[in-house]
Specification:
32% of the residues lie in helices and 17% in strands. It is of the alpha/beta class. The structure holds 3-phosphoglyceric acid and manganese (II) ion (MN) (2 copies). The site of one manganese (II) ion (MN) has 7 residues, from helix 3.
Length: 545
């Protein structure tokens, strides 16, 4: 994996720093755009003074099945880190179902065999068609196949979305699905929704930011402990009248009959966690798998056949049983740099820590070289982020400035969570504040990079804060009869900025790339560090002056 020295690009005399402004896209409209509304004098100046190009960050440009699919942190950071586009989980699972490959694998066989020996088959996962962590069509296909293969009892544990899809769309999924289940149900096939709750309240924590979410999920899905309702519809409508919260924040619920939970997970059952994306699947998978488990008082571990939709962590091989092979993301930027003796520093706050490490390195949680790499996690607040829209951007900047000034690192990368995490709350004012907080940090950071004779790449993994209101089919902001807008909590399809900030550049942006995207950044970084990029990496964004 030796990299050739570039004949065209002298190495940048100072550090090269990739700054990912998570969830900061470029919207074609003003209305509802928190990025444009915010007062961001530093970012505005950088974008007009230095070479800048928009990058594609959604759809096929990041390995999603179609250009209707928005980008997300996993596919975005995979593309940054791999310098190439790989078919991603959403696409691989859909293909595996379409070809029937999934049903031929050992994991599916194990799951079905367990259920046919008298166990119940449980499906647990994110219940929407967001296609970021999961897709409801995959669930449908598995239900139909299980029925066809003679499984007799199935229970569903549904995590309500409201984050990758409309903020109050849960019933748009639940109601038709109940009808579908009525069609599917028969004397021989007992299928029902058994538990659920909002995805930001139970089960889908990531990067160990808040294990109590997983504990609440465990109690609800496995132990059947929680507030009881007769149906998911009743749970959702009841909570909505009692609490002023959107779907992702709805509390957990247990479906019960005569006071008894109808779908506890017990010895001899099989469990499929049907999310394909790993960050929010790892903790609950660990709870189902690890014999010695300390993050919370789990109680007795039921002896179940557990399968993930994919393997979520290639380094720890978690979970060992999985339905679809993950993309084989190899020879990443991080690995090349490590094998060529280049020191690296990666930093973010908890909520995005794995984005610049695990996702960046092709969904591997470990390092390539302990001595050359430093990974820093600033603990995130555990609060609704609309209450702290500045999040930890100042603390991250403090640490990053220290790392740059230390002179120890040639390549640094940082993810600032604000545009995305606050964008997901749907709170426009908070998203504007988030952007302004971020701008203050750029004003501190960029001069330090330039003083060190370095180069900064300012970019983003996908849009979010750039569209805070739902749009109609024509792409205009949707308004009701009173002119009110509806909050949009999901990512956008917009491109993201690529700004190249350097004191004395000996290069300029290439003009012959028709639709550059996130996967073009890795080769650019290698060139800035004075290396040729590997032949199969997507083209660099720069050329010599
Ligand atoms: O997991 C989440 O928070 C959302 O589904 C996607 O956001 P991310 O891709 O920016 O993490
Ligand atoms: Mn993101
Ligand atoms: Mn996001």
């Amino acid at each position: 994996m030796k990299l050739a020295k570039s004949s065209q690009f002298p190495p940048c005399p100072g550090p090269v720093v990739t700054i990912v402004l998570d969830g900061v896209g470029i919207s074609p409209r003003e209305d509802g755009d928190a990025v444009k509304t915010a007062r961001t004098p530093t970012l505005d100046k950088l974008m007009t003074t230095y070479p800048m190009t928009p990058l594609r960050a959604h759809g096929t440009a990041v390995g999603m099945p179609s250009d209707e699919d928005m980008g997300n942190s996993e596919v975005g950071h995979n593309a940054f880190g791999a310098g190439r586009v790989f078919a991603q989980g959403a696409k691989l699972v859909a293909e595996s179902i379409a070809s029937g490959h999934l049903w031929q694998g050992k994991a599916w066989h194990d799951v079905v065999a367990t259920a046919k020996q008298g166990g119940c088959l449980h499906f647990l996962g994110l219940f929407s068609d967001g296609n970021v962590h999961s897709h409801i069509d995959h669930l449908r296909a598995m239900l139909e196949q299980a029925k066809q293969e003679g499984v007799s009892k199935v229970r569903l544990h549904i995590l309500l979305d409201g984050r990758d899809v409309g903020e109050t769309s849960a019933l748009d999924y639940v109601d038709p699905f109940e009808e579908y289940l009525t069609q599917l149900r028969s004397e021989q096939f007992d299928v029902a929704i058994a538990s659920g709750g909002g995805r930001m309240t139970i089960t889908m924590d990531r990067y160990e930011a808040d294990w109590s979410m997983v504990e609440r999920g465990w109690d609800i899905h496995v132990r059947g402990l929680g507030r009881q309702f007769a149906s998911a519809h009743e749970a959702i409508t009841t909570y909505r009248t009692e609490l002023n919260v959107i779907d992702q924040d709805l509390p957990g619920f247990v479906i019960a009959k005569d006071g008894q939970a109808i779908g506890k997970i017990v010895d001899g059952d099989a469990v499929v966690f049907f999310n394909f994306r790993g960050d929010r699947a790892i903790e609950i998978s660990r709870a189902f798998i690890e014999e010695q488990f300390t993050p919370f008082a789990r109680g007795p571990l039921p002896n179940v056949t557990y399968a993930g939709m994919m393997q979520y962590d290639g380094d720890t091989q978690l979970p060992p049983r999985f339905l679809v092979e993950p993309p084989t993301i190899d020879r990443t930027l991080g690995e090349y740099l490590a094998k060529n003796g280049v020191s690296q520093y990666a930093i973010s706050e908890t909520q995005k820590y794995g984005h610049v490490t695990y996702f960046w390195n092709g969904n591997r949680s470990g390092k390539f070289d302990e001595t050359l790499e430093t990974y820093v996690e600033i603990p995130s607040d555990v609060v609704p982020f609309e209450q702290r829209p500045w999040m930890k951007c100042a603390e991250i900047t403090d640490a990053l400035i220290g790392a740059i000034r230390s002179g120890q690192y040639r390549y640094l990368r940082v993810n600032y969570a604000n545009g995305d995490m606050v964008g997901h709350t749907g709170n426009f004012e908070a998203a504007v504040t988030a952007m302004q907080g971020l701008d203050i940090q750029l004003a501190r950071l960029i001069p330090v990079i330039l003083a060190a004779q370095g180069t900064a790449i300012i970019t983003a993994d996908h849009g979010n804060a750039d569209e805070m209101f739902e749009l109609d089919k024509k792409g205009a902001v949707k308004r009701d009869a009173e002119g009110r807008t509806k909050a949009k909590t999901s990512h956008t399809l917009n491109p993201v900025p690529f700004v190249l900030v350097s004191a004395n550049p000996s290069y300029q942006l290439r003009t012959n790339l028709t639709t550059p995207g996130l996967s073009n950044v890795a080769a650019t970084v290698l060139n800035l560090l004075g290396f040729e990029a590997p032949d199969d990496y997507d083209a660099s964004l720069i050329q010599p002056l």
